Amino acid sequence: MTRARPKVVVTRRLPAPIQERMAALFDAEFNETDVPLSAEVLIGQARQADVLVSSITDRIDAGLIAALPPSLKLIAQFGNGFDNIDVEAAHGAGITVTNTPSVLTEDTADMAMALILAIPRRLAEGARVLLKDGTWPGWAPTWMLGQRIGGKALGIVGLGRIGTAVARRARAFGLEIHYCGRTRKPPQVEEALNARYWASVEEMLAHVDIVSLHTPHTRETYNILSAERLKRMKKGAVVVNIARPELVDEAALAELIASGHLLGAALDVFEHKKGVNPQLLALARENKVVLTPHMGSATLEGRIEMGETVIVNIRTFLDGHTPPHRVLPEGRLGTNA
Ligand code: 8YV
């Protein structure tokens, strides 16, 4: 006998209107403490559940999937990227996986643009000057000089949804747009953005002043900015990463900034498990690195739309249809594109 209200387990606290709606629709179990759940607790909570609403802080690997109850048929990720889920193992276990693309594109691109500006225009450094005691030396013709953004070359790694939204904004700031990725875009897309395609990541990196990453974390993109490639960047170039930390060799990045080869980096993601790399932190204190704590999609509107998308995925699935944002195992581990 099917239950009247499907049991939905939500691993993190979601915006209030989303939790209210979920509570009205489902037999929903929330995580009011908002502390990420250990694998054991998650498996315990998932008992007799039909749906698991996960997020990036849950490691849903093959072992955890094998321990999920047979009633659980949908993992509805609250997020665009899903590199925390072993989609192949889920697929093999007959569990559907969904994500929430599109709704966070514009917010993430806005934040990327802020990070693109941050190092050349010394934004965090300038804001910090006034924080000490509210005083400052006063305007001076040669003080706090940064670098002009207009006319610089921006290299976008991955011209997907977010990469394209960044390119549109960057054009308005007068940046030259360059991009690389698995596939070249149709001529009308390149013309609209005045974007130049590079088949080789290395060649693009050697040509641009700022590189911004907008590709998912997959086997192919792991350390796409390797030490070797970072060394090939122009002297004084800047790295921006709002996608996934695994895309960059963080230690090499820190070394190249410390040595003065690169001007700096603005990072919204980093290996957080063990805390921020101390060298990166030291560089941030020297104003060579700007660190923001994974805020790319962090707007109330965006998070509500992500929640709405999760609900749409769940309801469509429970109604017996293919949910709109189904994720299939393609050897791809994420879609933050
Ligand atoms: C999300 C993100 O908010 O959606 C993504 O891929 O990187 C984030 O900004 C986060 O992953 C929530 O699960």
Structure description:
It is a single chain. With 337 residues, the protein is α/β, with parallel strands linked by helices. The chain has two domains: 7-103 and 300-327, 3-Layer(aba) Sandwich (Rossmann fold); 105-291, NAD(P)-binding Rossmann-like Domain (Rossmann fold), CATH 3.40.50. It contains 13 helices and 13 strands. A seven-stranded parallel β-sheet has the order 8-7-6-9-10-11-12, sandwiched between helices. A six-stranded mixed β-sheet has the order 2-1-3-4-5-13. Helix 5 (105-118) crosses helix 7. The longest helix has 19 residues, at 300-318. Residues 332-337 have low confidence and may be disordered. The structure holds 2-keto-D-gluconic acid. 2-keto-D-gluconic acid (8YV) is lined by residues 55-56, 78-81, 104, 296-297, 336. 2-keto-D-gluconic acid is lined by residues 55-56, 78-81, 104, 296-297, 336.
- Provide the list of bound ligands, each named once: 2-keto-D-gluconic acid
Low-confidence blocks of residues: 332-337
CATH class term of the largest domain: Alpha Beta
The number of E-state strands comes to: 13
Q: Per CATH, which architecture of the largest domain?
A: 3-Layer(aba) Sandwich
Figure out the total of helices: 13
Q: Whole-Å distance between the termini?
A: 41 Å
Q: What percentage of amino acids are in beta strands?
A: 15-25%
Strand order of the largest sheet: 8-7-6-9-10-11-12
Main β-sheet description = 7 strands, parallel
Q: Helices and strands, in N-to-C order? A: EHEHEHEHEHHEHEHEHEHEHEHEHE
Question: What is the H level of CATH, i.e. the homologous superfamily of the largest domain?
Answer: NAD(P)-binding Rossmann-like Domain
Specify Rg, calculated over alpha carbons. 22 Å
**Helix/strand/pairing class, anyone?**
alpha/beta
